[in-house]
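FAQ
Q: What does a multi-component entry look like?
A: The components come first, one per line:
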Amino acid sequence: MDLYLPVANLSVNALVIILLGGGVGFLSGMFGVGGGFLTTPLLIFYGIPPTVAAASAATQVTGASVSGALAHFERDGIDLRMGSVLVAGGLIGSLIGAGLFELLTAWGQIDTTINILYVALLGSVGTFMAREAWGALRAMKAGVPAPARKRRHHPMVANLPLRWRFYRSGLYISPLAPLLLGTAVGILTMLLGVGGGFIMVPAMIFLLGMGTQVVVGTSLFQILFVTIATTMVHAMTTGAVDIVLAGLLLIGSVTGAQVGARFAQKVKPEYLRMALAVIVLLVALRMAVDLFIRPEEIYTVQ
Amino acid sequence: MTRARALLLLLAAAFFAIGPARADDPRLVPDVSSRAIDIQYSFTGEELLLFGAILYPDQRLPDDRADIVVVLKGPVRPIVLREKKRVAGIWVNANSIRLRTSPGFYAIGSSRPIDQLVDERTAAIFELGLSNLSMSPTGFSEAEKLQRFENGLVDLYRRMGLFYENPAAVEISEGVLYRARIPVPARVPVGTYRAETFLISKGRVLAVASRNVEIRKAGFERFVALAAQRHGFLYGLAAVTLSLLLGYIASAVFKRR
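Then the predicted structure of the entire assembly, as tokens:
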């Protein structure tokens, strides 16, 4: 079933896009991540222009994170104060990201930048997750519980001035730390079309030292609002949001997410984390290969 | 329907065509299968039929065979063409040139290969052939670099179906009626296209005639594209609302089960 995308200016097989959204949604529901880091590269492989892919993926992540964020809100699993600071940072970040986007497009380096950022981020986060999951799996096999990590924030965070109390997170730290973290993730959301959960969650645990019971909810809260903001910024600057493409992705991903969430309850979390790490590393590898081999198209038109 | 009507028009035109502009030169009466192509949800490309009649003065066929060249050219726009090079092991955009009048679509069909019809100079004057497009380049120093870039663009657009060359596309029947099919792919840019017909004999262009073809988005697609361009804020709000709504509906539906 072919469908014409009015902003991307090409026709795609609607079924393929819905299935793609469904697959990503399944993974996102299973692992509790937005899935933007999979959508954008997959859309680019399919032939969608990178800008349209990133912008429309951000819109899709909004839809994918709604139900999760609501569920956590009902269970009081969101540190609203922390979330608001992160969102504020995210707004600043998406504006900086928009400026960077324009600059890099004018230089002709936007595609390479997107590619390198993906490889660096997914590669390092994937390795980190794989190591952590490997340790947990081995501890599980040996029958001893994994050594509980001492919860503390990074010394750099402790040195920042102006401290606030974040009751739900159990923290007394400077709001500048989450603000900067939010800004960095906001830039990435704008450039890559990712929600940033795969960076935000480890950063919250290991940099800020937040209590794990509010980490996922707060991350979803931040993703929800920052992807809304980036959709708006993209719509007003690059004009690259394709609502038909986003709609197709959403139909697939919101259903897939529900199925994935159900499926996740039947599998041990250690295996889930390992599987996610492997997927992340595979995407990173695929994009790294693209950087080093001779591309199919030497010439591009802008 | 369009073809039948066009044929009627053609006959009428042939009937009423008394006295061409110059007494001894033949005249062309061209037409296209559709004056406007609407891009809508199921648009996967279309085939445009360019056809018409050659009117000779006194209705007498000349002894020499005349040839027909048809060109369908899209709107020109300024582009930046970039070339990837290997820098420190990775492939990045290194060089670029600007082309101020690059056509977003160009298709040429003829009854014989162009180089057998006219000399290079004539081909350049009438922009016949993919190597003769005048794209007003800037930002290059050597002719060799320009040539390399232009070849790169032609190759890229050819594979995307945006440039098309077929030296056997035109069919001439009885020496007076001609027809050619030009494929128009789904990713064509919108705008006013010009369908030109050239009558060529003994290396000379005897007659030129043209018709405009409008390629435009229609209906919902037009509405969406315009909204995305002109009302970014409202469009963004609509996209956000759609995603929130779909996300919410899905979780509500699944919760009830």
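Q: Is there any commentary attached?
A: Sometimes. For this entry: Residues 2-292 of chain A form one domain.
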